[in-house]
Amino acid sequence: MHDVRRSQDWYTRNLGLAVEFEIPHLKAVALQDESGFTIFIGERSGEEISPSCVLTFQVNDVETKYRELSTCGVEFKHAPQKLPWGYGAELYDPDGYLVCLWDERSMKEKGGA
């Protein structure tokens, strides 16, 4: 995405999502629907964007989920750790989309904004 504000306006105007929070230094915005489902949008300049989205899932315990998936052979980009967006883990789905995993307790204790 090359213009986070344009996309933010489109999602809020057309789909009724609301801004949950912003991460200004990453030019990223969390948008949430009325049921609490959140998508993150952000700018990436100068690089080809393919695939073009990141999926972020809240889990009960990111450390436990990491161990569970690793045991099943899932390869991670990053084990649970402090990342630019907070504390969590990152992996790719079969189509190459980045998937971020986090939990509320770890985010607050180890890496919240």
Global outline = globular
Rg (CA only):
15 Å
What string, H for helix and E for strand, traces the elements in order? HEEEEHEEEH
Task: Please count the helical segments.
Answer: 3
Going across the biggest sheet, name each strand in turn. 4-7-6-5
Q: Low-confidence parts, pLDDT < 50 over ≥5 residues?
A: none
CATH superfamily of the largest domain: 2,3-Dihydroxybiphenyl 1,2-Dioxygenase, domain 1
Characterization of the model:
This protein folds into two domains: 1-49, Signal recognition particle alu RNA binding heterodimer, srp9/1 (2-Layer Sandwich), CATH 3.30.720; 58-113, 2,3-Dihydroxybiphenyl 1,2-Dioxygenase, domain 1 (Roll). The protein contains three helices and seven strands; from the N terminus they run αββββαβββα. It has helices at 4-15, 62-71, 104-111; strands at residues 18-23, 28-32, 38-42, 54-58, 76-83, 86-92, 98-102. The strands form two sheets. The protein has a four-stranded mixed β-sheet with strand order 4-7-6-5. Strand 5 (76-83) and strand 6 form a beta hairpin. The longest helix is centred in the first third of the chain and has 12 residues, at 4-15.
